Amino acid sequence: MNGAAEPAKGAGAFSAFERMVALRYLRARRADGFVSVIAGFSFLGIMLGVATLIVVTAVMNGFHRELMDKIMGVNGHAFLQAVETPFTDWDAIASQTEKLPGVKAAIPMVEGAAGISTQFGQSGVLARGVREKDLVRLPGVAANVKSGALKGFDAAGGVAIGQRLAETLGVGVGDKVSLLIAKGVQTPFGIAPRIKAYDVVAIFSIGMSEFDNVFVYMPLAEAQLFFNKDKEATVVEVFVDDPEKMDEFRLNFEKTVERPIIITDWRQRNKTFFDTLQVEKNILFIILTLIVIVAAFNIISGLTMLVKDKTQDVAILRTMGATRGAVLRVFLIIGASIGVMGTLAGFALGLAIAKNLDTIRLGINKLFDANLFPAEFYFLSRLPAIVDPREVGAIVAMTLTLAILASIYPAWKAASLDPIEALRHE
């Protein structure tokens, strides 16, 4: 045949001839329009599936990291509480703990629930007494002061409050707030509530609405007086370099400190919360993988119809010397090409959305006057996204595998055609 490309005898697998035939079959012609539409839907399904998986896993990773940073930025990684005797030796315990390997800070605190009020509003809070030198080491607070200052915190005798709490109470730096506890001073008539006014010396914004609306920091000595904790602390919060090595910290602490202490860590206090996040991430991954699986079934449908449409062409190729393996590889290349192109497009789209997710959210809010991702419901002031290369690699590998597997059966059917029977029926 003049000008016709013939299979080279002894050509290797996935030769130029096989790739050329596959490319010609992929091109849309009027007679093959319906097959091309199915291939297009397969491509779009894979692209959207991969992009969605990348974006969702990035958002869940962002949630986990942001919440971990916010929670550990103010709550510590381990919590030391005294047993048997009052916790009056908190300074010595904190000093011993800070000398342990991997410990960044050990901060003694007095904690207690209280009511807070102004003439504009009231709320329930968790009041924390902490020394100025320790407060400036709390990463979640010291790095996020929006107005006022922590310098001179002990001498000022005032309080530092979260931004959302300040908005609720309608106060700013220099204004007064009143703290109230039910168990105050002992009187001949019983225990009377204690109420005391404090100046607001600083306003911080941790970025987690739950914390910005609840925490109130006051000097440690003032908190001891206010909560009737004479020379006591309620807890020493420990911050470590690696939160995943809490078991190692426990062993070192128990070897060093002889005083009876109850140790709890972030895994115990937040286990249900972070386990729930992981379960949600896994379920979303499984559900969204169905998009890719549906697209893979579209590949099967499209290739099956293409095999039926190209029965005569396949028979002619076989009579010209193409082997069963060559025909099999031609259709494998077609299915794999759809999978590869769809995966690469989804990969690029997913990364682009994940990297600009919060900008996209703000744009949609402005365009439609909406409030996507309200901070009061989702605890965070922005929509976080962290792309994990390992997870992206797993998504890409899974998609390509599904595309290749979806191509095997139609390719095998094409390779199994009997050229004589096929031509006879034509």
From TrEMBL:
Pfam families reported for this sequence: FtsX (PF02687), MacB_PCD (PF12704)
UniProt domain MacB-like periplasmic core: residue ranges: 42-250
Assigned protein family: Belongs to the ABC-4 integral membrane protein family. LolC/E subfamily.
Protein's name according to its UniProt entry: Lipoprotein-releasing ABC transporter permease subunit
Keywords: Cell membrane, Lipoprotein, Membrane, Transmembrane, Transmembrane helix, Transport
Membrane-traversing stretches: 34-60, 283-307, 327-354, 392-412
NCBIfam families: lolCE (TIGR02212)
Bilayer topology annotation: Multi-pass membrane protein
Domain ABC3 transporter permease C-terminal: 285-419
